[in-house]
Amino acid sequence: MKGPKITVRALRTRQGVDVDVFAFFLPGDQVAQIADITRLRRGEGQLEGFQRKEIRAHVSEIAEFLSQGPVLFPNAIILALSPQVRFKSARGPAGEDEAVRSGELHIPIRPEGQRAAWIVDGQQRSLALARAKQADLPVPIVAFLSDDTETQRAQFILVNKAKPLSPRLIDELLPSMAMVLPKSLKARQLPSALCAALADTPGSPLKGMIKRESQSEGPVGVITDSGLTKAIAANLRPAGALGAYDPQGGMDAAFQALCTYWGAVRDAFPDAWGKSSEDSRLMHTAGIQAMGALMDPIWTRADASADPDTAVAEALARIAPRCAWTEGQWDGLGWGWGDIQATSKHIKGLTEHLLKLDRELSRPAR
Q: What's the CA gap between 181 and 66, in Å, rounded?
């Protein structure tokens, strides 16, 4: 093989109808030297390529994560290889498994658009690896020998058609992770941890009431964890009820504040508490998020008072007669209690209505 090339130690096996499949490692920045990204487009009436557009925010996030220092990044990139590559088997001892052979894979380095490999899965990762500070991070590669676009498209669809992980599953796993995480996941970690604490801690007003992905046996809660986690994340914003608490050392204080508030919600609406979301819109995602938003002004005032527990209870008691969680109509909204759904329109409308009631009813009497 003439010209520049990259030589790597590789394992070879065969799948399908005698299709060579290879497994090897490459420094991250070398992936872009050997592989092209064939973008999906229309050329002269025909469909060309198959890859989606670069998602810059996603690429930047991965690159930032990779640049933080030593990180674990075992995510394999899948390549299709041109017949231009060459594999030279190593001489193994007698009796070596013939299904998998070790050897050297020689991959020519060509100009962009003429390369000997194409990325089937992992284009965002490969772009991020090329831009990250740890450009020499060894990356696992799985490659199959085929320059047929239809075969590459078929593999692209098969790899990407699997249903992504449920956000609820990710949120439930996050609190147990101590490793360095991408920024978007790191922001979800504390709300998820607080939701888990509310679900599991004895004395929590929400213990045993939260539906979780891991529940396959036993009693099932009535509150979906995703709605509560989203509400807590909003409370943790700088202007939120929990925004003043230190994210590193203030989890206990934030947890106690949540227990105080949601305990007061339970006491203010005993007839709506603990029922299914079909029977009580307080337990519905819309109700949980709206009441979570109401915590911001109520707790901010109460936290500055001499008796926070009493202040929260009194604020909710003022609002309670105007709420229609299990029957009747919401005055001012024109919605029946059962009309409320987990849509942005209903969540926003209910939230704004409750906040308005709180402002009006908490004003000092003149």
A: 10
Give tens-digit pLDDT for 20-51.
999 999 988 888 888 887 765 545 555 455 55
Domain containing 60: what range?
Answer: 5-160
- Rounded Cα–Cα distance for residues 215 and 223 (Å): 13
Give residue 164's pLDDT band: very low, low, confident or very high (50, 70, 90).
Answer: low
> 347 near 289, Cβ under 8 Å?
yes
Per this entry, what is the length of the chain? 366
Q: Is 300 left (phi over 0), alpha (psi -120 to 50) or beta?
A: alpha
Q: Is residue 366 part of a domain?
A: no
Q: Please, are residues 280 and 272 in contact by the beta-carbon 8 Å criterion?
A: yes
The 10s digit of each residue's pLDDT in 279-310 is 999 999 999 999 999 999 999 999 999 999 99
Q: Identify the bridge partners of residue 77 per DSSP, sorted by sequence position.
A: 141
Secondary structure of residue 189 in the 3-state scheme: helix
The secondary element (H helix, E strand) that includes residue 271 is: none
Which residue, of 94, 125, 160, is where some domain finishes? 160
Produce one character per residue of 159-175: b if its CB has 16 or more CB atoms within 10 Å, e if not. Answer: eeeeeeeeebeebbebb
In whole angstroms, give the CA distance from residue 204 to residue 225: 15
What is the three-class DSSP state of 151? helix
Cβ-contact 288, 354 below 8 angstroms: no
CA distance 255 to 78: 44
Q: 355 and 263: one domain?
A: yes
CB proximity list for 133: less than 8 A, separation 6 or greater: 66, 67
- Kindly state the tokens that stand for 331: 């005055």
Predicted local confidence at residue 183, as pLDDT: 77
Taking the C-alpha atoms of residue 49 and residue 39, their distance in angstroms, rounded to an integer, is 5
